[in-house]
Amino acid sequence: MKVYKFGGASVRNADGVRNLHKIIGGEHHLFIIVSAMGKTTNALERVFEGVQHGDRAAAQVHIDELKRYHAEIIDDLWHGPTQLARVDAFFAELERIVAERAYRAVDAEAWYDTVVAYGELISTTIISEYLRFTGTPNRWVDMRQCIRTEQRHKDAAVDLEASALLLRKALKDAEETIFIGQGFIGGAPDRTTTTLGREGSDYSAAVVANLLDAESMSVWKDVDGVLNADPKIFPDAVQIAELNYLDTIELAYSGAQIIHPKTIKPLQNKHIPLYVRPFGDKRKPGTVIRGMSAPVQVPILILKKDQVLLTIRSRDFSFVLEEKFSAIFSLLERYRLKANLIHNSAVNLSLCVDNTWHIDEAIEALRATGFDVMKAEQMELLTIRGYTAELWDKYARGPQVFVRQSTQTTVRIVRKRS
Ligand code: ASP
Ligand code: MG
Description:
Blueprint: E1 2-6, H1 14-24, E2 30-34, H2 40-52, H3 56-77, H4 85-100, H5 108-116, H6 118-133, E3 139-141, H7 143-146, H8 160-171, E4 178-182, E5 185-187, E6 193-195, H9 201-211, E7 216-221, E8 226-227, E9 239-240, E10 242-244, H10 245-253, H11 264-268, E11 274-278, E12 287-290, E13 300-314, H12 323-334, E14 339-344, E15 348-354, H13 359-368, E16 371-385, H14 389-395, E17 401-406, E18 410-416
Parallel strand pairs: 1-2, 1-7, 2-4, 3-4, 7-11, 10-12
Antiparallel strand pairs: 5-6, 8-9, 11-12, 13-15, 13-16, 14-15, 16-18, 17-18
Helix pairs in contact: 1-3, 2-3, 2-5, 3-4, 4-6
């Protein structure tokens, strides 16, 4: 079995879906993981926020837009006005939930997951039906039943053991050799829908590859492969032919938008190669990521945006080190803050974290525990692997640089957004 993953951008319109069909043409023993079409997840977040803010009419407006958007894609694919009963049913379900189900703030994350999951449920339904319509038998798999996660919403971890049994059960005795499942979503032990974190479809695909002992996983993207920098931010970006798992994790963790950072572990554990390939041209080699690879020859620049720099100091001026560390990090864990960079001095601990929902609660909790906390917003984290003197001069100096950390090969810079 091979696993193919198509992100939202690659299926954002009817051409994208036709292209998916072209790419899988003639292949068998494929498990295809698909994200929500285009910016659907963002729109569903707006639907959720409508409910959250008590404005259900606004939520419905966003649902109406999504219905129109998907209807256009369907009409285009089927060459004329077409109703797909299963798509209509999903929209009806979503509308019913949004109109009728009671909202409580304590359930915000569970509510969020329930709503945003419809993006993937709908995209996979359209694609599965379209493939059948074009003569490619396939089985639509409900990943809420197959990917068992922990009992936690919005950024749930997968229970691989439980999922292995469930997924195998879902594929058992299948006559089809092509399977279509949703990225990003799973189900908790209490049967509610969970999600694996934004952009989590890569992780879903890697989990499926792991569970099925796939021979490879391919991510089909709107770039030719992995580049050494985001060309929108750094012109002169070039493609990298090969990467090893370790470098890839480092890059993804630093914010490279190659793939979701959680993707590598399930692949590495089973030695499954990952191909990043351009969906526009199946003949191009893309980038391969596996255990061993040729060394990367160019500097790699990664910019992680939307960061907050927290500077933590114990109020009695005692050293922040040692036992205080564990108090701080268990609080971070509780509020799900991810430290992207850690820097300490005698009395200060600086943490660069993603700007998330729970940041102010975490700060409150730290203050209640006896720390002073300073919060600097609108920061970004720039990582340069294999930096040169020229790159150092360009990026590692200047008043906008708040923290700079370097080893012989890598420099990491927390700077004010320009
Ligand atoms: N649709 C989800 C998102 O946009 C998951 C993904 O695209 O990987 O975050
Ligand atoms: Mg997406």
